User: Which sequence fits this backbone?
């Protein structure tokens, strides 16, 4: 570190009150920004959990569907037509719906029921206990062991429950890549059992899952499905549609944007005002350095060094505080929806850089206006 940066660092840290105020302001701003964006990212990730867990490459649905929960049943001819399209390796039906489960203690619990194709069981989860063949047994269900598992009284193999006046038997405990968004346990069974046990409309197929023979066949499949008046989306397209729905068609996206903007403004105002006060209190020192030969660009580099040094420390503290808070929250609430991604960290770093740039600009303007004779006039 050159001598001029040593001086800048000593000037900064020697004024402990101003240095602490700068760190607190930036840390608080980064903490809020990271928390808001992480919560939103976690919510979007959980909202797309069924798409990732089932793993189909193409999802056929009614065009009005905007998320996995609000599925609209389709007639059987959609499945038959999909299987006949050139380029389709195979196509299977999927049932996705909700039901009420009556537990042994008499309580009722809402669940999500996923009905897999009876012939292939495409989209089946990985089993922790039990055998997948047992799903064909009478009244058989698989239960996903995730954050919502205890809401079903932590069932074991052989546990019984009642679903719409029908007996249900736990034959397997499964795990999936991600749990759902709304805090509802998930059950897997066969397609025919799902539509038999759960009341539905005359159409019963929630989605048609297609595996194309190759990537080049996907556009053709999508065009053929569109001729039927339905929509065929790749996994990535469906995830984007779900994300766009929660971002732009609910209040969630706007609320997160407002909170992130407010956090940025809070950090900018606190750091800008505190840094300006710091410059004013050290104006004589900068003037003295200018009088003994320090050039304007050297003074500018000192101020920028001070601003970015403080901002980067505040960035680290803010990210650390947010990460610690999320870890504690997940220990208390396993279904807490929040995740930190590299995109969030990069965005927060850009915001901190802007805060540092604006703060240093405020200080630079004041220092460049000072004249040495003003310092020594008295």
Assistant:
């Amino acid at each position: 570190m050159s001598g001029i940066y040593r001086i800048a660092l000593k000037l900064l840290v020697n004024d402990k009150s101003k240095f602490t105020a700068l760190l607190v302001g930036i840390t608080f701003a980064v903490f809020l920004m990271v928390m808001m964006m992480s919560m939103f990212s976690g919510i979007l990730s959980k909202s797309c959990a069924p798409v990732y867990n089932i793993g189909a490459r193409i999802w056929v649905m009614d065009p009005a569907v905007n998320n996995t929960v609000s599925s609209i049943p389709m007639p059987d001819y959609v499945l038959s037509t999909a299987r006949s399209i050139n380029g389709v390796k195979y196509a299977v039906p999927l049932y996705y719906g909700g039901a009420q489960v009556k537990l042994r203690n008499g309580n009722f619990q809402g669940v999500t029921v996923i009905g897999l194709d009876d012939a292939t069981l495409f989209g089946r989860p990985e089993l922790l206990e039990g055998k997948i063949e047992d799903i064909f047994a009478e009244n058989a269900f698989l239960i996903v062991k995730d954050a919502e598992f205890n809401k079903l009284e932590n069932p074991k193999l052989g546990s019984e429950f009642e679903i719409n006046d029908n007996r249900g038997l736990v034959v397997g405990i499964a795990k999936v890549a991600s749990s759902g968004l709304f805090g509802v346990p998930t059950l897997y069974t066969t397609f025919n059992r799902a539509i038999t046990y759960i009341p539905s409309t005359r159409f019963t197929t929630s989605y048609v899952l297609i595996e194309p023979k190759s990537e080049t066949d996907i556009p053709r499949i999508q065009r053929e499905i569109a001729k039927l008046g339905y929509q065929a989306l790749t996994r990535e397209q469906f995830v984007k549609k779900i994300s766009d729905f929660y971002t732009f068609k609910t209040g969630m996206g706007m609320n997160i944007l407002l909170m992130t903007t407010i956090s940025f403004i809070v950090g900018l105002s606190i750091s800008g005002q505190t840094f300006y006060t710091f410059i004013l209190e050290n104006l004589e020192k900068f003037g003295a350095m200018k009088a003994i030969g320090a050039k304007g660009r050297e003074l500018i580099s000192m101020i920028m060094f001070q601003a970015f040094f403080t901002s980067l420390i505040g960035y680290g503290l803010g990210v650390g505080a947010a990460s610690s808070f999320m870890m504690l929250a997940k220990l208390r609430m396993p279904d807490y929806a929040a995740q930190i991604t590299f995109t969030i960290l990069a965005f927060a770093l850009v915001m901190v850089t802007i805060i540092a740039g604006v703060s240093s600009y405020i200080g630079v303007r004041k220092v460049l206006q000072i004249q040495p004779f003003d310092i020594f006039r008295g």
